[in-house]
Amino acid sequence: xxxxxxxxxxxxxxxxxxxxxxxxxxxxxxxxxxxxxxxxxxxxxxxxxxxxxxxxxxxxxxxxxxxxxxxxxxxxxxxxxxxxxxxxxxxxxxxxxxxxxxxxxxxxxxxxxxxxxxxxxxxxxxxxxxxxxxxxxxxxxxxxxxxxxxxxxxxxxxxxxxxxxxxxxxxxxxxxxxxxxxxxxxxxxxxxxxxxxxxxxxxxxxxxxxxxxxxxxxxxxxxxxxxxxxxxxxxxxxxxxxxxxxxxxxxxxxxxxxxxxxxxxxxxxxxxxxxxxxxxxxxxxxxxxxxxxxxxxxxxxxxxxxxxxxxxxxxxxxxxxxxxxxxxxxxxxxxxxxxxxxxxxxxxxxxxxxxxxxxxxxxxxxxxxxxxxxxxxxxxxxxxxxxxxxxxxxxxxxxxxxxxxxxxxxxxxxxxxx
Length: 418
Description:
Number of strands: 30
Number of domains: 3
Number of helices: 3
Radius of gyration: 24 Å
Low-confidence stretches: 1-18, 328-334
Distance between the termini: 19 Å
Largest sheet: 8 strands, antiparallel
């Protein structure tokens, strides 16, 4: 839970904009966009890894995720066999693959990291697409077969045999289509919750752990598979958000006219994306009436706009950034107040738990534009729990702030309505 202390209702003030300089920066991925770069808005580039030497990435940030994604930017593709189950491992027939006969082409979700391609045919709990959750052992046991192509162009059959709760390990079986090179490998995410992903090179049989810590970066510059139009996918080069980062795009205005107070932040990882540039004959042309507001992992607000792009010869992104808002933490207030908001993001019902040892306080839910959607006051030193109906509050999709103020100070926490 992230609790924030605001010196005002929201420190998204124009005074801060005037105080902070515009900073020009760049990120270089190398020829043919061979690397992926991890970038902190406050601190700059935090590291790079080679983006062509892995095929599958396994979620490690939480024990609650079963997500496995593909290196779609470098031609990893996946099909699910729908004419049988894992008992067909030795005899699986791929003759109908090209025509889609008995096969589904699966792709990663483009707007969120969950779910990955292997989960696309999930039917709902306890089914995870590639397997089923056992409510006794808490293992996910694989019951589906897949065929994939690797970054090196090899064809493999794949069986995600399980994700095992006691060891926090994925066990995967792979083989050539003719049954040769039949092997199993294990990806253990035990002790790896500080990272978002662990990577696996199927051709080399190698586990890679090359990312920075998940809290160290806000943006990922990389080549990935993007959605160009409904049903149309293609490898693109652009920028995606890290988890716990939100952003909004402002189009049709020069960056110096963009106004943060008019935007709604979203956790769509493709908000910055790739379409701020277009190829025109000999080079790239940038949209000079497009910019982005980004809330980083610490809660600070940044304005970013691209000023240049060098294509596959260098893979260079050039951009300006400026901090335009700040939200800072205070431990003293947190010791005397408590505020919990869940779930987040929220669908139909928002649950709040508030408390103070300073003689009660006042609670408000406000939009980023300052509209108060809910207000209540308490007296005495006590904890209170509320369940609020989102529709009754009149909250549309977007970002809001719960503010809890007592004699000790003001606590606030952001939440997203979907």
